[in-house]
Amino acid sequence: MQKHTTFLEECKLALQNDATLVLWVRCEIMYSGRAESHLASGDRLIIIKSDKTILVHQPKGSSPINYMKAGCEHTLEPVEGTDAFILHSRQGKEYLDVFIEQVYDLSTKKLEDHATLQLVGSERDMSDMLYHNPELIEKGFTPLSREEHTKYGFIDVFGYDKKGILVVVECKRYMGDLAAVTQLRRYVEKIKASKGLATVRGILACPAITPNAKKMLEDWKFSYVHVHPPKYLEKHRKSQMKLGEY
Amino acid sequence: MQKHTTFLEECKLALQNDATLVLWVRCEIMYSGRAESHLASGDRLIIIKSDKTILVHQPKGSSPINYMKAGCEHTLEPVEGTDAFILHSRQGKEYLDVFIEQVYDLSTKKLEDHATLQLVGSERDMSDMLYHNPELIEKGFTPLSREEHTKYGFIDVFGYDKKGILVVVECKRYMGDLAAVTQLRRYVEKIKASKGLATVRGILACPAITPNAKKMLEDWKFSYVHVHPPKYLEKHRKSQMKLGEY
DNA sequence: GGGGAGAGATGCCGC
DNA sequence: GCGGCATTTCTCCCC
Questions:
Q1: Contact A28, B117 (CB under 8 A)
Q2: Which residues lie below 8 Å from residue A203, measured CB to CB, with a gap of 6+?
């Protein structure tokens, strides 16, 4: 862990070496790119990663108040006659200028991390589950395909019911809303048109649904099926799982 | 700026005092809540904010690999017989467990920041612009309302054309896509139904449009109008603006 | 607090 | 690279 000799030197060294850099500063921020923003002076945490991602965090909130994506170019210059610095971060047509009025602290380290997140319970997992457990949709449902790509989007689960009528199933891992119903409708109409069918059923599979979405489903003669996304680890937690065992 | 006396004490003090806490660690992570995830051991940056938001960042990428929202409860405990710690963060049905194998460094400080972001160029600014400059939509367009709320969503700009036909305008500040067209279609149909009209025009106003969205627009006899979201600061930058002047 | 929709969305996958 | 879409989306606004 290196601590600062000279602020400017430390930062430049970190950027050169693809180390991660954390700055505690009081600063004012200007952004211009896809939109434009200004943030008045305050205390913030600045993080510059090895891939040159920059994040500026205020003391509250989950999201960075300003940021630039990986591959950004950073230049740091002192403001003559003061203790201040300006950090210019630019990438194509995007500009982020941080006027650093005061540096409280700096730390930098080269982080080694090759792990990738293993996630369970996504919509993909949910459509997997429905494909392999079609009775969760309804009795007699026979899946034909998953993640079927059409010109107007791709369909989560596609199959036919016990009467042989085609069924489009759209999964949502959380609350089904109006956008989910319009999405389902788009797929149903696409299938009708491409196969020349008068009747294609539409089913929205999700753990809950908003009242307006439910009404819109009914307007379009679609159905709602109550399904929860799958979880595998939960039971382990409940049986006093130890973290190190994974 | 306080540097560590004892790791455990420093962390607990920071959490008690609503300070912001930054940890450089090697760790393994488990999450269980809306979904479930596991992340194998690696070097990461952990940030706990004054509002108890926790963010875990890998050395690459814009988004935190794991996180919990504001109001989370954190408890830190040593693992007996080792130098390791376990950080339990929990909030309702959400659990985040960080198995900290090694602590590289810690820093903590109470950040003072009361500034809020001033942003220009949002979709709201865009619909404002169109409402006050209706000729940007087309000659003879007369706006009636903005952000009109309907049961099936709310309409960006609503008005009538030179022939007196009702027009629904949907704005997108970036590339118009299939979702934008289905959204527009939903509003047009809602207006048709609620007012008992056979003809209501739909216009998608955006700086660009995907080929499929354009085709779908045409299928539905809707139009595309090329409009850019407004920017105000850009001209300042181009005339050698100084940051401190804002 | 829930619903609806934007976001400087980001990230992933497929063509 | 673009396109289509999920996301532990997050955030804001408004009922």
A1: no
A2: A137, A138, A167, A168, A169, A170, A184, A222, A223, A224, A225
Contacts with A42 (C-beta within 8 Å, 6 or more apart), sequence order: A26, A27, A58, B111, B112, B113, B114, B115
- Is a pLDDT exceeding 80 seen at residue B235? no
**B contacts of A243 (beta carbons < 8 Å):** 28, 30, 86, 97, 99
Residue with tokens 């510059």: A48
Strand D reaches within 7 A of the A175 CB: no
Task: Please write the tens of the pLDDT for every residue from A42-88.
Answer: 999 999 999 999 999 999 999 999 999 999 999 999 999 999 999 99
Which residue has 């307006």 as its token pair? A212
Q: A1: which chain B residues are within 8 Å (Cβ-Cβ)? A: 24, 104-105
- H/E run at residue B142: strand B142-150
Looking up tokens 């919990």 gives B68
3-class SS at B234? Answer: helix
Could you give the dihedral angle defined by the CA atoms of residues B10, B14, B15 and B21, in that order, rounded to the nearest 10 degrees?
-100
A173 touches strand D (CB under 7 A): yes
- Chain B residue with minimum CA distance to A238: B32
Over residues B75-93, the mean pLDDT reads 95
pTM of the model: 0.92
